[in-house]
């Protein structure tokens, strides 16, 4: 792994670092508020690394949810990754020994950054870039969870509204990608389809139909998107 690849991966990961440390701290604080030590925050961040699912998992742990209900909830919350995985098949095809971890560590934010860098600077190896970007992003999340749980032991802290921080990060990444990209059709399509599904299916059931609708829309407009990408 050359220095150029490491440097570019680090610079690319900076927006996620700023968000993940804060979000991880929120997760650690919530976990501590339920009576779990900071070791739980580290363990969950290393093995689950599920972002929003870890926030949900705090209540599942505290309420003693069954394995079946936990599995179903995880599937519902993270079903969008099925669509991410399909779109990353070609991108991750030649990653070799890095492939397993890259698949495990694919989060919303990592996916956004990998897809948002179609043309890498000269000298940057894409396989190592994807791997390092994923590893760096997870390390930020682990650090944030550890710090949050540790601070929760030292200082009393109200956790009201902390879970909204995930939504805030998604908005920041959306705005950043909008500013970087000249092609706004995927973003507009995502907003419109999500809004329609939200109105039709409600807040608790709109995610999977929205992802299916967005995937179908991107498939229909694939030729148009490919043509404009080649022009740019």
Summarize the topology.
Layout: H1 3-33, H2 38-47, H3 52-63, H4 67-78, H5 80-87, H6 99-104, H7 108-115, H8 126-154, H9 165-180, H10 185-201, H11 207-220, H12 222-231
Describe this structure in words.
- The protein is built from twelve helices and no strands.
- The protein folds into two domains: 3-164, no CATH class; 182-232, no CATH class.
- α2 runs antiparallel to α8 and α10 packs antiparallel against α11 (207-220).
- The protein is mainly α and 232 residues long.
What is the total number of structural domains? 2
- The topology string of helices and strands comes to HHHHHHHHHHHH
Q: What's the number of helices?
A: 12
Bulk shape? globular
Helix content: over 70%
Key terms:
232 residues, mainly alpha, 2 domains, 12 helices, 75% helix, globular
Quick summary:
By secondary structure, the chain is mainly α.
